[in-house]
Design goal:
single chain; mainly alpha; Growth Hormone, Chain: A; 2 domains; 17 helices; 0% strand
């Protein structure tokens, strides 16, 4: 519930963020979009830098105080953006949100604390589904609130974050017993230190590498989908919005329900293998699709491929000591932040090259073909990691 409400808050502000930037800068939509990209970049960089710090704090002081503090910071962030009289305050808000944005990773650490190893992957899938539900509902609420004014959705998101905080304070117990906590160390509370610590667990390190490559490939969808659909199928905003909503629904169904049926039969390793194969097939299908219906038809395959994330996370959590679950989830948050920075840069450049006037043969699906190759490359560290992970 906490993750769903948090995702709703993120989704609520999406429809009106361009309007707020234009209001503060008095710029047309093109230059305003550049500032939106800078805001996203700042958020991702802060997530990368401070993900392991927040994870290590939760390993030392427990999940409950870190989760509640993160929700409080998000409520303040939304208020700052809703009241901001100038653009630089939006950057302050995004800096704060990036530093404290640990609800998802801390929730995963909480799940690892209270769930038996055999059921962790399914529970991680449920957390992913909750995020998907919130992300589907958030833009709808944000669009309706935006009718009241550009700033209204930010205040709605602030209220939602505060309600989330109160809900957590009232019902959330502490999941990490004092006996399973470890001393906080700045040497480990940063991306390089956390990576060095994980490198001492080779079976986890290889799976983290596979997780990174999977993320690089998978983030091509949010990075380029809207541009690709316009160029390849001449879709408008309505068709693009519908396709994204269908993808979100597919992820919720797969990670919230179907994975709980598949995992007991296949196990985490085989489930991840199947997810990788389906993901590669989906990327190749999209790369060479020639009609809009073909892009819609592949959505179930893409959604099924998303089982890789909870299955991989479950394998890594089961191979990590109890007193380092927060550190692992913080490192995964940093890895995800890197993919959010790198993939849009390369995907948009590749798309521009193969759809621009200099392209000998227009090929808008080029970023998806490149992503399929990266996804196939991820199978190498995944296979090596499986050989080191006990069944």
């Amino acid at each position: 519930m906490t993750v769903a409400l948090d995702a709703m808050g993120i989704g609520i502000i999406m429809p009106v963020m361009p309007d707020l930037i234009r209001e503060l800068t008095d710029l047309p939509i093109g230059p305003a979009a550049l500032w939106g990209g800078y805001l996203t970049f700042v958020y991702a960089v802060m997530q990368f830098a401070f993900g392991p710090t927040v994870g290590s704090l939760s390993d030392r002081f427990g999940r409950r105080p870190v989760l509640i503090a993160s929700l409080a910071a998000l409520a303040v962030d939304y208020l700052i953006m809703g009241l901001a009289p100038s653009l630089w305050l939006l950057f302050v808000g995004r800096l704060l949100a990036g530093i404290a944005g640990a609800t998802h990773s801390t929730a995963n650490a909480f799940v690892a604390d209270v769930t038996p190893p055999a059921r962790r992957a399914a529970a991680f899938g449920l957390v992913g589904a909750a995020f998907g539900v919130g992300f589907i509902l958030g833009p709808v609420v944000g669009g309706l609130a935006g009718e009241l004014g550009t700033r209204a959705p930010f205040f709605v998101a602030a209220v939602l974050a505060f309600a989330n905080l109160c809900y957590g304070a009232a019902v959330l117990p502490e999941s990490l017993d004092p006996g399973r906590r470890r001393r906080f160390s700045w040497a480990r509370a940063n991306p390089l230190g956390a990576a060095a610590q994980v490198a001492r667990l080779p079976k986890v390190a290889w799976l983290v590498a596979a997780f990174f490559l999977f993320g690089l490939a998978h983030y091509v969808y949010p990075a380029i989908w809207a541009f690709y659909a316009k160029a390849a199928f001449a879709w408008g905003s309505a068709e693009i919005g519908l396709s994204l909503a269908l993808v979100g629904v597919g992820f919720v169904v797969v990670q919230g329900g179907l994975i709980r049926l598949v995992l007991p039969r296949l196990g985490e390793a085989r489930t991840a293998w199947a997810g990788f194969v389906l993901s590669i097939a989906g990327l190749l299908w999209v790369a060479f699709a020639t009609e809009g219906w073909m892009a819609l038809a592949v959505i179930p395959v893409v959604a099924l491929g998303a089982v890789v994330t909870p299955a991989l996370t479950g394998l890594m959590a089961n191979a990590t000591p109890d007193d380092a679950q927060g550190e692992l989830q913080g490192l995964l948050a940093s890895v995800t932040a890197v993919t959010m920075i790198v993939t849009p840069l390369f995907a948009t450049q590749l798309f521009g090259h193969f759809t621009g006037p200099a392209a000998a043969t227009p090929f808008p699906g080029a970023p998806f073909l490149a992503a399929a190759l990266v996804m196939a490359l991820a199978l190498v560290p995944f296979a090596i990691g499986l050989r080191r992970v006990p069944s």
